[in-house]
Amino acid sequence: MQTHAHTPNAHGHADAERRNLTPWRTEDIDALFALPFNDLIHRAQQVHRAHFDANAVQLSTLLSIKTGGCPEDCAYCPQSARYDTGVEAEKLMPIAEVLEAAQRAKDNGATRFCMGAAWRSPKPHQVDAVGEMVRGVKALGLETCVTLGMLRDGQAEQLREAGLDYYNHNLDTSPEFYGQIITTRTYQDRLDTLARVRDAGLKVCCGGIVGLGESRRERAGLIAQLANMDPYPESVPINNLVQVEGTPLSGNDAVDPFDFVRTIAVARITMPRAMVRLSAGRETMDDALQALCFLAGANSMFYGDKLLVTDNPQAEADRQLLTRLGMRASSEAQLSTCGDDTPCAAH
Ligand code: SAM
Ligand code: DTB
Ligand code: SF4
């Protein structure tokens, strides 16, 4: 449920294309999850091909600009100060180091640079400092994304003026299951930040995590929340829980890999024009499983040897994987549709 009225912004037309005019009911999404695997993947491929070039993938590189020492209690997170995970609290990274990392990401072929900070919510001087980083990264010719926690009034606008393209803020799971994972901020707090981001004219990057211990119905509940945002997010990261020793969720049962692929497929079907990102958790996936994720409609991934504090596959291995699959890296702008219903692959 969103409490903020959406004011028109600079992206009015594109926003209209990401409206599900009939809201998705959780039971209908649950029914998608229950389809035979081959039927579900077939549907997802059809939707994917109607809106995107099915052989292109967008590459985003992450950097943790402020690591560890976070006051929040997110049960999955290695950066929470409440859990003994071996991650040391650090200060905000100097801007020169951030820009060096961004240049390396660009040289390696990334088109978006995402900066993450282990904050509950940024203080005014911290938004000033991150704004300078955004300005610098943008000047290198990269798309910019930041994830800084909850935003107060005016902060999203300040970031947009600095040149920010995307703000990442995940719902993580369904409203019903959420309280078992995080107690230090509410689901509504998250929706409020997302509304501020949208109203400021920023693009929204919002997704969740599979493997927290949620049921299939709760997984469907997360997708319903995302798909019924009006408009739904431009960018939807689907993370597979990275289990980090010391966090309460370390030792969880691993997700059936096919259920992870199903989640990608259901996100693709319910949010046809979104970039669906194959996000955290690729270290424990083999090449065949990742290929299935692309087949199910993933068209973006995190690229670079590290996520925030945990490992991601080596960039060279990813380049080889894409080559073996006959896929190529592409920016989101090149990937998205032309505004009508003609598949872009035909152009
Ligand atoms: N501190 C800010 C916040 O939480 O709003 C931004 C950074 S936080 C690390 C960004 C997202 O990373 C989380 O919302 C969660 O979805 C994802 N994440 C964190 N730890 C993870 C893990 N161990 N496995 C998978 N995803 C994780
Ligand atoms: C998102 O959905 N996943 C990224 C990004 N947004 C910020 C973070 C994944 C973190 C995985 C564990 C870690 O390295 O901290
Ligand atoms: Fe802090 Fe973000 Fe980790 Fe939660 S997910 S503990 S808010 S860094």
TrEMBL record:
Q: What class of enzyme is it?
A: transferase
Q: Needs which cofactor?
A: [4Fe-4S] cluster; [2Fe-2S] cluster
From its record, what is one biological process in GO terms?
biotin biosynthetic process
Q: Domain Radical SAM core: where?
A: 55-273
Q: Does the keyword Metal-binding apply?
A: yes
Positions that bind [2Fe-2S] cluster: C114, C145, C205, R277
EC assignment: 2.8.1.6
Q: Single GO molecular-function term?
A: iron ion binding
- CDD domains found in the cross-reference section: Radical_SAM
Residues recorded as binding [4Fe-4S] cluster, renumbered to this chain, are C70, C74, C77
The cross-references to Pfam families, in alphabetical order and at most eight, read:
BATS (PF06968), Radical_SAM (PF04055)
User: Which InterPro entries does this entry report, sorted A to Z?
Assistant: Aldolase_TIM (IPR013785), BATS_dom (IPR010722), Biotin_synth/BioAB (IPR002684), Biotin_synthase (IPR024177), Elp3/MiaA/NifB-like_rSAM (IPR006638), rSAM (IPR007197), rSAM_sf (IPR058240)
For this protein, the record's SUPFAM superfamilies field holds: Radical SAM enzymes (SSF102114)
Name the domain of life this protein comes from: Bacteria
Q: What does the cofactor section's free text say about binding?
A: Binds 1 [4Fe-4S] cluster. The cluster is coordinated with 3 cysteines and an exchangeable S-adenosyl-L-methionine. Binds 1 [2Fe-2S] cluster. The cluster is coordinated with 3 cysteines and 1 arginine.
Q: Which keywords does the record carry?
A: 2Fe-2S, 4Fe-4S, Biotin biosynthesis, Iron, Iron-sulfur, Metal-binding, S-adenosyl-L-methionine, Transferase
Quickly give the catalysed reaction: (4R,5S)-dethiobiotin + (sulfur carrier)-SH + 2 reduced [2Fe-2S]-[ferredoxin] + 2 S-adenosyl-L-methionine = (sulfur carrier)-H + biotin + 2 5'-deoxyadenosine + 2 L-methionine + 2 oxidized [2Fe-2S]-[ferredoxin]
Its pathway, per UniProt, is: Cofactor biosynthesis; biotin biosynthesis; biotin from 7,8-diaminononanoate: step 2/2
Q: Which family does it belong to?
A: Belongs to the radical SAM superfamily. Biotin synthase family.
What functional role does this protein have? Catalyzes the conversion of dethiobiotin (DTB) to biotin by the insertion of a sulfur atom into dethiobiotin via a radical-based mechanism.
On assembly, the entry states:
Homodimer.
For this entry, the protein name equals Biotin synthase
Q: Which organism is it from?
A: Pandoraea terrae
Record gene name: bioB
